[in-house]
Amino acid sequence: MPYALLTTDGQISSLHRDPQAGADFLASEDSRVRAFLGGGGGGDDQPARQFASLDADLVRVLEDLIDALIQRNVLMVTDLPLEAQQKLFNRKNVRDQMKNYSLQLFGSEPLGAKVAEVVSTDLGDTL
Predict the structure, then answer these.
(1) Which residue, 2, 14, 55, 68, shows the most beta carbons closer than 10 Å to its own?
(2) Beta-ladder partners of 21
(3) Residues 6+ apart with CB under 8 A from 36
(4) Rounded CA gap, 5 and 22, in Å?
């Protein structure tokens, strides 16, 4: 997939899963396929990049939320489906590896730990 019937100027007139007479095979990433399916591809991928960035940010927020729930014993890792556990562990391993290669501007302690320490000192257990 996809096999495309093209107009004389090279634009897609229809897409098909299976080979059709006169249809050309186009990669799914082809800008014409993406444009035909409504995924941008017409040169302006800004909305797609924005959504990808937002999705990545949301994934990070969810990871941090899950970590916080586990640390507070509200949730156990074993409560999650096995596939979710594996994905979380894989992402955590990659993040840890990336952390080992990153520039340490604030010493070896993560900045988030320092912020948490200041917040807990100022607010106590009210969180």
Answers:
(1) 2
(2) none
(3) 4, 12, 15
(4) 7
pLDDT by residue for the chain (127 residues), tens digit each?
A: 588 988 988 888 888 888 888 888 988 888 888 888 876 555 556 777 777 778 888 888 999 999 999 999 999 999 999 999 999 999 888 888 877 766 555 565 555 565 566 656 655 555 5
User: Are the C-beta atoms of residues 115 and 127 closer than 8 Å to each other?
Assistant: no
| pTM for this entry | 0.45
Element (H, E) at 65: helix 46-71
DSSP states along 26-61: --TT-HHHHHHTTS--SS--HHHHHHHHHHHHHHHH
Indicate the domain borders of the chain. Answer: 3-36, 45-75, 80-127
